[in-house]
Design a protein that fits this description.
Layout lengths: L16 E4 L20 H22 L8 E6 L15 H10 L5 E3 L5 E3 L4 E8 L5 E7 L13 H10 L3 H5 L14 H6 L8 E5 L2 E6 L9 H4 L7 H4 L6 E3 L4 E3 L5 H13 L8 E7 L4 E6 L16 E6 L5 H7 L4 E5 L2 H13 L2 E7 L2 E7 L9 H9 L3 H9 L3 E2 L10 H5 L1 H5 L8 H10 L17 E3 L5 E3 L1 E7 L3 H11 L2 H6 L2 E7 L1 H8 L9 E8 L23 H9 L8 H18 L2 E14 L2 E2 L11 H4 L4 E2 L2
Parallel strand pairs: 2-13, 2-14, 20-21, 20-22
Antiparallel strand pairs: 1-22, 3-4, 5-6, 6-8, 7-8, 9-10, 11-12, 12-13, 14-23, 15-23, 16-22, 16-23, 17-23, 18-19, 24-25
Helix pairs in contact: 11-15, 19-20
Length: about 650
């Protein structure tokens, strides 16, 4: 059992998922988008093949001595946008760069998927249970931490991140998430603007601070991780004149945050950051080619094991699905990440057979999906969402796209998650929405789409529903998809343009945009009427769906306001870590409600393959979705 070995190494304070261009790399809001589910049969055979490959690669790397220097080029099929900070957008490529340039979390995930205190960061950590049931974690920091620009990192940097990224003004400045300290005492009052003091965050000295976990979130199955803290560079995010103080009742800004006055400064800084805490720092970003250039951070102490990077320069670039394998073969890229489509896997294995490249594979901690926006048009009705699920043969879709390297899941989970394995029988009983036009029509009739264009009983053509105001709503779904995306192409054939959809009386209108435009629409950065998207999802190490399904919450991208689902999501982790069966019962209950409401349609969850040039050494340390390239790269080196 892989208990608590869940997902990517983003900890507290970031979105629960990451996003990907679900298609080329079969990609994650893994946001990212991230951050997701998988199929079982192919995962087993894939893992077996991977073990053999990794063993031989490991033997050769162990015999060699790491050397410093060199450059690698990483190819990612998810189009980046230059915005690496997760509070605005969170696709997988930008998120990966964020992880490569961020570090010094107080609690991290180690190679075995366990939460550990980072000794490079924390000198001392104490936990105190308070009389009201809350728990206070106090950190004393190492005093030699530095930002990439040479400035010292202090307790104030950690406190700043809680205050700034929990503030109500953050959303007013364009962010989509301001829930950094949502599990802490005083968050609700601070986040709503009722209080300028964050009671649960204390600044106790230059190198000492504390956070107090709200009793409403205790006990908690992931209790070890709830107090994880990250640093933020206040001098970059805010102009001169701002400071943080604590008079004994909680930390606060000495000057009010004025969203209107700060908006330009904040948004300029997030696109042009000047201080980093991770192994690398951003040297530049090319908007034309969607390419990051990263160089070593000279002031990085190392990860929790003290490991510093060997490779001098990392190029992280967007690759087109049509040319990516040629780029890998000719040296245009050294690594291709998250290969999940049948043709690309086969092409990659051809290079492996030639002896010029290696690979690792691991179950995807996410899934490719159709995402519904549930507050508009026909998709506001669960019956319509279920009808669409019945109108696509997902097993055939998954087999066609992954070539047998993936399968279908029926809930908000990934096969990398131990909970699914432990409750395999119950999860297996979830509605699989097997293809059936008759069942689709039955759901549509339940939703009230029983009329024709003339308002009379439906006979043929497009269905309509009579609303309370007497107007007729057409059964038209507005679908936003990204360009050059094989999943979109397959969906157009298997669903949108199929005779079965027409037969059911439905119309799915597709609009093709760039991936970055899709993310803007998904994030509701500008008004739009799209109610269906296809993209991927990846889960983070701390499986916590609360914010994703919180009624009217900023991270509720499905815009689904269901009190029961929100309650189940919030209560999922409120279990003593020793009570595994109780936790699993809650996990299943949440999945059942999710499966009934179907805010997403999971299309496939696949085995991911990373293919790399043989000049890259040490990469075989990746064995699952927890410890990915952003963690393993510290241990890699280039040998020409």
């Amino acid at each position: 059992m892989k208990k608590k070995q869940l997902l990517s190494a983003l900890l507290a304070g970031v979105m629960a998922v990451t996003l990907t261009a679900c298609g080329g790399n079969s990609a994650s809001t893994e946001g990212s988008a991230t951050s997701a589910a998988s199929g079982s049969a192919s995962a087993t055979s894939g893992s077996t093949a991977s073990t053999s490959s990794m063993a031989s690669a490991s033997a050769s790397s162990v015999a060699e001595t790491p050397v410093d220097g060199g450059q690698i080029i990483i190819g990612d099929q998810t189009q980046s946008n230059g915005d690496i900070y997760p509070y605005w957008s969170n696709n997988i490529s930008d998120s990966s760069v964020n992880k490569l340039t961020s570090g010094y979390d107080t609690i991290v995930v180690d190679k075995n998927g366990k939460f550990v205190v980072d000794p490079q960061v924390v000198k001392d950590k104490t936990d105190t249970k308070n009389e009201d049931g809350s728990i206070t974690t106090t950190y004393k920091l190492q005093e030699d931490l530095k930002w990439s620009n040479g400035e010292g990192i202090t307790a104030k940097d950690y406190v700043f991140r809680y205050l700034f990224f929990s503030s109500p003004q953050l959303v007013e400045m364009g962010a989509s998430d301001n829930t950094e300290g949502s599990k802490l005492v005083g968050f609700a009052d601070f986040n709503s603007g009722k209080s300028k003091v964050f009671k649960g965050v204390r600044l106790l000295g230059d190198y000492e601070f504390s956070v107090t976990i709200n009793k409403d979130y205790l006990p908690n199955y992931y209790q070890d991780a709830l107090a994880a803290a990250s640093a933020g560079y206040m001098k970059g995010w805010l102009p001169e004149g701002y400071d943080i103080k604590d008079d004994g009742k909680g930390a606060y800004f000495t000057k009010d945050l004025d969203a209107k006055a700060l908006k330009k400064h904040v948004n300029d800084y997030r696109m042009n950051m000047t201080a980093y805490s991770g192994p690398y720092m951003k040297e530049k970003y090319d908007e034309t080619s969607n390419t990051y250039t990263l160089v070593k951070n000279p002031n990085y102490k190392g990860n929790y094991e003290g490991q510093k990077p060997h490779i001098d320069t990392v190029i992280y670039k967007f690759v087109q699905t049509e040319t990516q394998m040629d780029e890998l073969a000719t040296g245009g890229v050294d690594i291709l990440l998250h290969m999940g489509e049948a043709n690309e896997i086969n092409s990659g294995m051809d290079l492996v057979d030639k002896g010029t490249h290696g690979y690792v594979d691991y179950p995807r901690n996410g899934y490719g999906r159709i995402l519904f926006v549930c507050d508009r048009g026909p998709t506001q009705y669960a019956e319509v969402r279920r009808a669409i699920a019945y109108l696509i043969d997902r097993n055939e879709f998954a087999k066609t796209f992954t070539g047998g390297h993936g399968s279908v899941v029926n809930g908000y989970y990934g096969t990398a998650q131990w909970m699914v394995e432990e409750r395999e029988d119950e999860i297996g009983k979830l509605n699989q929405y097997s293809f059936s036009v008759d069942k689709a029509v039955e759901e549509l009739e339940k939703a009230g789409f029983t009329l024709g264009k003339d308002g009379k009983e439906y006979k043929s053509g497009l269905r309509y529903k009579k609303l309370d105001d007497g107007k007729l709503m057409p059964l038209t779904i507005n679908w936003c998809s990204s360009e050059n995306n094989p999943v979109s192409d397959l969906l157009a054939t298997k669903l949108a343009n199929s005779e079965d959809v027409k037969k059911a009386g439905m119309e799915i209108k597709q609009r093709v945009v760039t991936f970055n435009e899709l993310i803007e629409n998904y994030e509701q950065s500008k008004p739009n009427d799209f109610n269906m998207y296809n993209l991927g999802i990846g889960f983070n190490v701390l499986y916590d769906p609360e914010q994703a399904y919180k009624v009217d919450g900023p991270s509720n991208k499905n815009k689904i306001n269901d009190d029961e689902l929100a309650k189940l999501a919030k209560g999922l982790n409120l279990v003593d870590p020793s009570k595994e069966d109780e936790y699993l019962d809650k996990f299943v209950a949440f999945q059942k409600r999710w499966n009934e409401l179907l805010p997403d349609i999971p299309l496939y969850s696949n085995q991911y393959y990373d293919f790399f040039n043989n000049k890259l050494k040490g990469y075989e340390g990746i064995k699952d979705a927890i410890w990915d390239i952003t963690s393993q790269l510290n241990y890699c080196w280039v040998q020409e």
